[in-house]
Hints:
CATH topology of the largest domain: Glycerate kinase, domain 2
Strand order of the largest sheet: 3-4-5-6-10-11
Distance between the termini: 25 Å
Amino acid sequence: xxxxxxxxxxxxxxxxxxxxxxxxxxxxxxxxxxxxxxxxxxxxxxxxxxxxxxxxxxxxxxxxxxxxxxxxxxxxxxxxxxxxxxxxxxxxxxxxxxxxxxxxxxxxxxxxxxxxxxxxxxxxxxxxxxxxxxxxxxxxxxxxxxxxxxxxxxxxxxxxxxxxxxxxxxxxxxxxxxxxxxxxxxxxxxxxxxxxxxxxxxxxxxxxxxxxxxxxxxxxxxxxxxxxxxxxxxxxxxxxxxxxxxxxxxxxxxxxxxxxxxxxxxxxxxxxxxxxxxxxxxxxxxxxxxxxxxxxxxxxxxxxxxxxxxxxxxxxxxxxxxxxxxxxxxxxxxxxxxxxxxxxxxxxxxxxxxxxxxxxxxxxxxxxxxxxxxxxxxxxxxxxxx
Length: 386
């Protein structure tokens, strides 16, 4: 039996690779000789580098930069032999790096991501893929642009620090010190969202609250992003703020589109292509995917949906395993999901579930594969009797 295990990470618990390994252990307890291919997935958020490092055979490098609040941190990026790199913005400006009480969306910025980019440029790369997801920021990417040489001036020609609370004060942009290597690089940005920069579906309104923004701050931030978008349009001759996906990672994607000439691609789809998921599906009998929480948002473009859709096109059944099953997870059935299972097999706290996720996954995988295998055998037997 040939089985593909292609899950996303379980946030705050297990990486995608660890999830796949736990599921594989459970399957082998029931079917010792099963041919298992582990293809950890991601969609551009935190954990993307961990999911792809082994599959794509990139060199994982570390850099001392700063987090979204300017505190020293160690971030990582992937360097590939063919002069390309992948930078996970969440490793330098991630929401999961901040305790809830420390979140301050008015000062959080992407400067540390810019420092990562500089490190990659220093190695002579010609292609850079940026992941946009899991950020603590709502700065329209001005922190990253500041690291690359852009300066922001107020009405008195005084230089401003690159924080969201200063966005509305920017009267002019000074591009004289921009890093000249930017134009020599082919840029790509991947994300799992399609939100524009501003408006009721924009970065501030949809993602600001989870980063600590109050309703009043959301309105102010939205106006500030719009202000910076107008200044950008004056320089670039085009309004990038309405492009689907520009609002990803607090507008970080907007900065990449407008100032780096980046190509925006759906994260899960691009990653599935890179790991050659379709090639493996052609030989598979079963696919197991999953993520920490399976719900209606999963069906809006996250990694498990991409796996389900591609498996459906190959007529391969897909089972999903998740930490929890939230409202609307049944939407995935219409896209081709066969069944979904939650790890929580009895009363337990969230802390207990997170701490025991690996063991729970292993046990559930054993039960799931046992049910699937014997159901297939029974169905085959009934058909032969007809």
